[in-house]
Amino acid sequence: MNQPKVTGIVLAGGESRRFGSHKAFAKLHDREFYDYAIDALDKNVSQLYLVSHPDLEEEFQNRTTAIIVQDLPEFRGDGPLAGIYTVMQKTMSDWFVVLPCDTPFVTNNLIKQLISFTNDKNIDAIVPVINERKQPLIAVYHSRVSEKIEKMLMDKNLKMSSLLAECNVKYVTNQELQFQDMEFENINNISEYEKLQQKPI
Fold first, then answer.
1. Counted domains in the chain
2. Residues with Cβ within 8 Å of residue 191, at least 6 apart in sequence
3. Inside any domain, residue 1
4. Is 177 within the bounds of a domain?
5. Pairwise CA distance, residues 123 & 178, whole Å
6. Which domain holds residue 170?
7. 3-class DSSP state for residue 43?
8. Residue 107 near residue 184, CB atoms below 8 Å
9. Is 169 inside a domain boundary?
10. CA quadruple 188, 190, 191, 195: dihedral, nearest 10
11. Which of 185, 180, 161, 181 is nearest to 171 (CA)?
């Protein structure tokens, strides 16, 4: 029996308004944020896409071997769902692992653990729940959710929580995952960025 095909998606198409500049190229210990996401996904997936902000597409193409795409024109600017749906339309795959570009502590091992739950054919999504908070952007989605996402985008219902409500989700908790507590930290503003730089990696 063939192994399910798994595709990685790095979401780097946001405006980063609260941060003040594009977070993907912010640095932590001399590496850019997006590079940590690529590194975490790379050995766990058969192909890797990065959804770029239009202004950054050429820069990403010069820096990484990931396949660079922009949101489909009809859904440009519609947030993470647009990025996920765009990649689902670009390639055939069983599962899609999603990471934002602003969680530099996510590890290869964490992604491997999330993918390990894909052997259940009844599951539409695998989503961590860390300290009672759902993490739908560090998660795994089956290709069958593409139709649900398309309808939501058409309806301008852009909340990740709305997608989860429509799916058969396997929620994995702190107790089911081995991690170091920092993997799920993301950076929204300069103050958080400055604090993050003080942490080891």
1. 1
2. none
3. no
4. yes
5. 21
6. 6-196
7. coil
8. no
9. yes
10. 90
11. 161
Cα–Cα distance between 136 and 124 in angstroms, integer? 12
Residue 187's H or E segment, with its range, is none
Assigned domain for 104 exists: yes
CATH, residue 141? 3.90.550.10
What is the 3 state secondary structure string of 116-180?
HHHHCCCCCEEEEEECCEECCCCEEEEHHHHHHHHHHHHCCCCCHHHHHHHCCEEEEEHHHCCCC
Could you tell me the two tokens for 185? 């930290």
Average pLDDT score, the chain:
87
Q: Six-digit token pair at 153?
A: 């985008």
| Cβ neighbours of 129 (radius 10 Å) | 15
List pLDDT tens digits, range 7-31. 999 999 765 554 445 677 778 788 8
- Whole-angstrom Cα distance, residue 11 to residue 79? 9
Q: pTM above 0.85?
A: yes
What are the pLDDT digits (tens) for 46-87?
A: 999 999 988 888 888 988 889 999 999 999 989 999 999 999
